[in-house]
User: Fold these one by one.
Assistant:
Number 1:
Amino acid sequence: MRGLDLPWLPRWCTLVRADNPSPMTLEGTNTYVLRGDGATAAMVVDPGPLDEGHLEAVAAHGPVERVLLTHGHPDHSDGARRLHEMTGAPVVAADPAFCIDAVPWRLLRGDARNETAAGLRIRVLPTPGHTSDSVSFVVEDEDHGEPGLLTGDTILGRGTTVVAHPDGRLGDYLTSLETLRDLGALTLLPGHGPAGGEAGERAAAYLVHRARRLDQVRAAVAAGATTAHDVVRRVYADVDPSLWPAAELSVLAQLDYLGVSRRGG
């Protein structure tokens, strides 16, 4: 898909959406091309799936000096190596397994860092929870500001995300949401769904949602639910059953957080 220059996005950001819609990916994976005023090269965040047409559309916004990953799930990372081949740009990720020619700029877990590239200031925030390797990026133009927050799957543009147990952990996720909430009114640039709106406000709403879900899970266990699947049937009864396997991962993470024995279906 061609780049979407949406009026509510920062001037340094172009959204190129992959054609991989599904109940889990919503409209598709959001790939972002970032370039500050006057910069000759761009950065790409989350190349998306291994889809030649999509990657060609992304590369057309080049030259590309760096490819960043918010986390290693395939719908965000599978196209990274091919985009590297097309552009020569190193691939940078929190998980070294996904880095390509990027040792000097490797993201360090547990270490918020500031970088400058493509005419932009970038703050790297470890935000584990959805996965253990999830990071978010605070980005702003060196001259004009316009701060935005790229969240991958930590916050979506619509609905809520999965805590992908056992790699994802709810305690980590809640801490990450608190960190993002405290950033305030940055433009939300999520990995799926509509971009725009205030990231801090969305993070606060996610925290309220998670607290309610935990109360529901506690009540389900107290009422006799004996497996994660039982909890899903009670707590997620209003959710499309096609999403129940993903919901079960989140329930397992919730049970782990509450200290309840992990039990499958």
Number 2:
Amino acid sequence: MNILVTGGLGVNGCWVTRELLEIGHNPIVFDIRPDFSLVSDISNDIEVVLGDVSDSAAVLRALKHHQIERICHLAAIYPDAADQNPVRGFQINASTTVQIMEAARIMEVDRVVFTSSIAALSPITPEYLGSGARPIAEDFPAYPSGGSVYGATKVASELMGLNYERLYGIKFVALRFATIYGPGKNAPRHGNINVVWNRIMEHALLGKPLRFDKGGDDSYDMTYSRDVAHSVVLGCLAQRPLHSVFHIGSGRSHTLREFVDSVKEIIPSAPLEVGPGQTEPTGLQGQLAANPGWLFDTSRAKTELGYEAQYLPREAVKDWLHWLERLNLEIVPSD
């Protein structure tokens, strides 16, 4: 099957591209930046169309020329950039989704998978926070009042995708992701979003001390990037699901201490320390402070897509090191 992957060279898209290729499909990557560092070992096996995803004519040409049957739409700009330029943020993250759906309608593409986010949700209420709290299912309100431009674009994209499905029968699959971590996800490349876990790995690999005085007991739904990619592939290829919106996470909570211990087990020389208690709301931990204690309910994704996370922190760290070596990736400090 010929499948267009927008953002297919990025930190999440690269794994979608790789998995589709491995299982015998033909991923056509549509990306604005010719950075092949995350696909260097397969760059000769994939076709890449360089272009701006907001250029609807270019997208239409790619769909027609490559006889695309399905689309995985991962191209986006991240929260900091969207807040700094709301017009461009909305254009790239929301208007482009509508253009992708319209292009799919014109070229008779039968399915579009859209990568959404927990940012689409309303503020998480107390009954979903803390140990033993109920997981967040897909019926949780999606209205991020006062949250971010990024969150608003995810909601707008979901709603327009659902309308294209209603009006034209194009199957629309929106995957809302929990916190993502994995190779390549650092501040210089990816913006200042969910990079704490990657910062921990950077310090471990560079032998730089990193200490969290508090926060070891806080738990998080953190999902390895290869699990994220697998959910996109499943969303693209599964028999037509009954629903259109799915929560994608790890299926269980992991504490900051658990992750640090996993890193130190695999990299014994890592100069990392983490204290007990709650996360500090400032500094590096400030990124974590807004996100502890909730867990996505992934039962719908398991039932309809066959999704189940494969990487606990220990397995993720081992896999991470494997790909750093295989791709000869440079560790670029974020600070």
